């Protein structure tokens, strides 16, 4: 479904992604694991096209120059250099790190904003779907986004991303700073989304253990390079990986 | 793979920049001049300015330019080092101007006394009046600073105090025009280098921290309103200084001191010169004020040209001249194979 090959991203002279190739098949959950500064978020930004936006802003403000190289193929089409809005219309949706929900809007409004580009019928069904997926949100639908707890905000962020009718959903560190219980809920929801919505997901995390049971395939990033890849079982069998990323 | 064929433009610091970062700068003339030349050009250029411009009219323009430069430095300092967007140029100019005029015409103080007194008292008054909106974050400061000059001008007009619409006439001038010009030029240079020193002191760090995250500053046990008040005092002192000089230059003080030009032009100059550089705004004034004088021949169309120049800068070079220049001065580019 998505195939990115030899991605290179420079922030000025700093190499953020070094020759990273990743792929995601139809209806797969792909994990991308790595420590801080491994390049996970850069990878997400590059794939979802936000990088093009950041690049433009930096050029306008005379800041760092960002160079992006490589190839990204999505559904057989080259999407390198495509605007993020075009990619979103094609079904590539990013649920950003630290949630970035609209803090001043209510839960319902947040979801509606996410579904702005979907047809009214689609938006209605997805809205109902989000409320069945995260029943907690239904009772809070009038609550202002900024007053939600971290876990609820993350549910809202995922819900908002779903409203945009993704075919390929990126979850950037969805478990950041959440309690193990909420983490488990979210991981379960992620699998449910894949099974019920028939979409592909790419999930990044620093700590792989909670997410590992649901991923089909995983990549491990280290200092901007993809050092290892494999199916869940392959990675579990590697003792170095087990100790470094899974904490087993 | 394709990427073996690809090239990327790399930006690197010049060797001399690295060398002059340390004490080695004192080792050779070349490195010394690399450091001091840009500053010298600015200082010598400013000092020569009254001598090289043709005629009295343009000398007057240079003086007015310096007043605007003071305001622009004050705006840049408040906006990009403390995070307070001030539209109060007119307010500061008016406060300083009226104080100096009253001190001079009513109490007979000479300019050498009225200017420092008006600067300090004016700054204190401005800070006091702005104090209520300092704990707030956001646009409130900008709105309040914008409202004060309008309010004060209308009060003076309506109550017919302080000379009313006629203003205060018969304010003493400087001893002669050379004193006048070099006084304001010296003030601009002092303000420029002084503020640049200030923002690198410890208190400058606190100012910048207030801009970045005032909650974290509060959590560190510091009173942000206090620090903001200090910053506003410094910023408004620069503006009041400009205002006090201005009334002695015009030998007149009226409600046109509260004109919006004093609030807007410094902002435009900061945008053009490069925000957050402090030198940039002065540079912006050096460009904008003469342009606005030259365009006077076009009558009302001048605003159109003026706006076009501004928009061009914002769209194509929103970083500002100074940021661009600094980069070209300190860094070079080359193509590298990826």
Describe this structure in words.
The complex is a heterodimer of chains A (248) and B (338). Chain A has 248 residues and is α/β, with parallel strands linked by helices. Chain A has one domain (2-99, 158-176, 184-246): P-loop containing nucleotide triphosphate hydrolases (Rossmann fold, 3-Layer(aba) Sandwich). Chain A contains ten helices and ten strands. Chain A has helices spanning 40-48, 50-61, 84-89, 107-114, 120-133, 135-139, 150-163, 180-197, 232-237, 239-246, and strands at residues 2-11, 14-24, 29-33, 66-74, 77-78, 92-95, 168-172, 200-205, 217-222, 225-231. Chain A has a six-stranded mixed sheet, with helices on both faces. A four-stranded antiparallel sheet of chain A has the order 2-1-4-5, with helices on one face. Chain B has a domain at 45-263. Chain B is globular. The model of chain B has no long low-confidence stretch (mean pLDDT 86). The chains are: A alpha/beta (248), B mainly alpha (338). Chain A binds chain B through residues 6, 8, 10, 12-13, 19, 60-63, 65, 67, 69-71, and chain B through 1-3, 6, 8-12, 317-320, 323-324, 327, 338.
The second-level CATH architecture of chain A is 3-Layer(aba) Sandwich
**Binned strand content of chain B:** 5-15%
Cα(first) to Cα(last) distance of chain A is: 32 Å
Strand order of the largest sheet of chain B: 1-4
Mean pLDDT of chain B, nearest integer? 86
The secondary-structure element order of chain A is EEEHHEEHEHHHHEHEEEHH
Q: Report low-confidence residues of chain A grouped into runs of 5 or more.
A: none
Largest beta sheet of chain A: what is the strand line-up? Answer: 6-7-8-3-9-10
Q: Whole-number radius of gyration of chain B?
A: 22 Å
Q: How many strand segments of chain B? A: 4
């Amino acid at each position: 479904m998505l195939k990115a090959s030899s991605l290179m991203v420079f922030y000025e002279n700093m190499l953020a992604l070094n020759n990273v190739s990743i792929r995601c098949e139809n209806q797969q959950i792909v994990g991308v694991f790595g420590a801080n500064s491994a390049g996970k978020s850069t990878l997400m930004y590059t794939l979802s096209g936000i990088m093009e936006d950041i690049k433009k802003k930096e050029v306008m403000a005379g800041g760092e120059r960002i160079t992006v190289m490589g190839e990204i193929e999505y559904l057989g089409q080259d999407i390198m250099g495509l605007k993020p809005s075009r990619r979103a219309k094609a079904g590539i949706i990013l649920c950003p790190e630290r949630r970035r929900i609209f803090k001043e809007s209510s839960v319902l409004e947040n979801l509606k904003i996410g579904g702005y580009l979907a047809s009214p019928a689609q938006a209605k069904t997805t809205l109902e779907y989000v409320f069945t997926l995260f029943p907690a949100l239904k009772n809070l639908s009038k609550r202002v986004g900024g007053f939600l707890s971290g876990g609820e905000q993350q549910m809202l962020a995922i819900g908002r991303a779903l409203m945009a009718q993704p075919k390929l959903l990126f979850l950037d560190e969805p478990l950041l700073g959440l309690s193990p219980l909420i983490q488990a809920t979210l991981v379960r929801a992620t699998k449910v989304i894949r099974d019920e919505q028939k979409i592909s997901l790419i999930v990044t995390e620093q700590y792989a253990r909670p997410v590992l049971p649901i991923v089909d395939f995983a990549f491990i990033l280290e200092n901007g390079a993809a050092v290892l890849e494999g199916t869940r079982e392959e990675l579990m069998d590697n003792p170095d990986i087990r100790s470094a990323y899974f904490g087993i | 793979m394709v990427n073996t064929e690809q090239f990327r433009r790399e930006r690197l610091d010049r060797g001399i920049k690295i060398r002059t970062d340390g004490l080695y700068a004192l080792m050779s003339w070349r490195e010394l001049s690399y450091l001091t030349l840009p500053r010298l050009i600015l200082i010598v250029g400013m000092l020569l300015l009254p001598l090289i411009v043709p005629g009295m009219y343009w000398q007057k323009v240079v003086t007015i330019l310096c007043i605007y430069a003071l305001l622009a430095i004050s705006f840049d300092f408040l906006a990009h080092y403390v995070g307070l967007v001030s539209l109060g140029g007119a307010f500061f100019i008016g406060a300083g101007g009226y104080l100096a005029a009253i001190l001079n015409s009513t109490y007979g103080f000479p300019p050498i006394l009225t200017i420092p007194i008006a600067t300090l008292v004016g700054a204190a008054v401005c800070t006091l009046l702005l104090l209520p909106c300092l704990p707030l974050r956001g646009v409130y400061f900008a709105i309040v600073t914008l409202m004060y000059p309008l309010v004060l001008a209308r009060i003076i007009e309506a109550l017919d105090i302080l000379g009313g619409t006629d203003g205060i006439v018969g304010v003493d001038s400087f001893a002669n025009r050379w004193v006048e010009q070099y006084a304001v030029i010296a003030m601009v240079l002092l303000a420029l280098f002084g503020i640049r020193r200030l923002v690198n002191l410890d208190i400058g760090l606190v100012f910048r921290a207030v801009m970045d995250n005032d909650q974290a500053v509060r959590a560190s046990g510091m009173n942000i309103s206090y620090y903001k008040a200090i910053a506003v005092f410094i910023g408004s002192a620069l503006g009041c200084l400009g205002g006090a000089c201005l009334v002695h230059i015009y030998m007149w003080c009226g409600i046109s001191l509260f004109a919006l030009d004093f609030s807007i032009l410094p902002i435009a100059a900061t945008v053009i010169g490069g925000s957050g550089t402090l030198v940039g705004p002065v540079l912006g004034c050096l460009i904008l004020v003469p342009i606005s004088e030259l365009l006077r021949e076009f009558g009302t169309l001048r605003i159109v040209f003026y706006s076009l120049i501004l928009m061009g800068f914002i769209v194509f070079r929103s970083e500002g001249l100074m940021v661009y220049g600094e980069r070209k001065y300190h860094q070079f580019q080359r193509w590298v194979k990826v």
